[in-house]
Structure formats: C-alpha cells, structure tokens
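Example S7 (structure tokens).
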C-alpha cells in the first residue's frame, strides 16, 4: 500500500512539474514565470526524494507542495495574480489541479502511516516497564542520605 501511494504521489509531483515547466516555456507568463520554473524544479526534486528515501519528511514535503501549489492556483483563479486570472478551462490547469490533489491526499496518508510506524518502532510490543514500588523508592532515598 505504501509503495503504491509513493508511486502515485511521485507521478502527481512529476505531472505538476511537467505542467509548470510547460507553462514556464510559454510566452506571457510575466512575473510568475520564474515561480513556474522553481515549482517545476522543486516537484522533480521532491519526487526523487520520495522514491528513494523512506522518511516522513518526504511525505510532508509532498503534502506541502500540493497544498501550496493548489492554494496558489485557487488564489490566482479567484483574486488574480499579476493581472492574470485563470478559469480552469485548459488541459494544463486541470492536469495540474488533479495532480496536486493527488499529492495532498497521498502525502497526508503517507505522513500518517509513517508516523504510526515510527511510534510503533520506538516502543517494542510486549516490553513493559515495571513501576517502582514505594519501598524501593524510600529505600533509595534513605541510602542517599547516609
């Protein structure tokens, strides 16, 4: 299950990066052009990290990438950025939005599952620490006074 989630998240990251590289190469991106380039490069780097490192940070990076990119798109389509307003009517916008939703969902599930794994690994099952008996604690305190 975790391997499938990692693959889906990596494909979402690469799809979003591909759309941002495509938009960066188009004319008319204006002031947001360098941000498209940065987003495209970051998506590729995070996808590679997600595939080759099994760490919770990669899942959180995937989640944050999806949330930040999707939030920027929503702000751009509702409020407009640099006198540009999107309308969710082109194929690149739809592909990017769907891939970023996949990044958010997969990143969240991966982060939750890896959190449970790390908590389970920190305390082995069946190992019970005995509670100190009052007599032992009092005995140690008396020994320390002498």
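Recovered sequence:
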């Amino acid at each position: 299950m975790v391997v499938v989630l990692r693959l889906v998240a990596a494909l979402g990251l690469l799809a979003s990066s591909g759309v941002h590289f495509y938009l960066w190469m188009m004319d008319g991106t204006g002031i947001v052009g360098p941000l498209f380039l940065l987003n495209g490069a970051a998506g590729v780097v995070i996808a590679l990290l997600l595939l080759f490192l099994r760490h919770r940070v990669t899942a959180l990076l995937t989640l944050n990438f999806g949330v930040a990119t999707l939030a920027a798109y929503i702000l751009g389509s509702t409020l407009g950025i640099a006198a540009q307003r999107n309308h969710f009517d082109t194929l690149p916008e739809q592909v990017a939005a769907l891939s970023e939703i996949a990044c958010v969902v997969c990143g969240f599930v991966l982060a939750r599952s890896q959190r449970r794994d790390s908590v389970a690994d920190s305390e082995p099952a069946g190992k019970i620490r005995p509670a100190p008996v009052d007599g032992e604690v009092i005995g140690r305190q008396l020994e320390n006074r002498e």
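Notes on this example. Residues 91-122 form the longest helix (32 residues).
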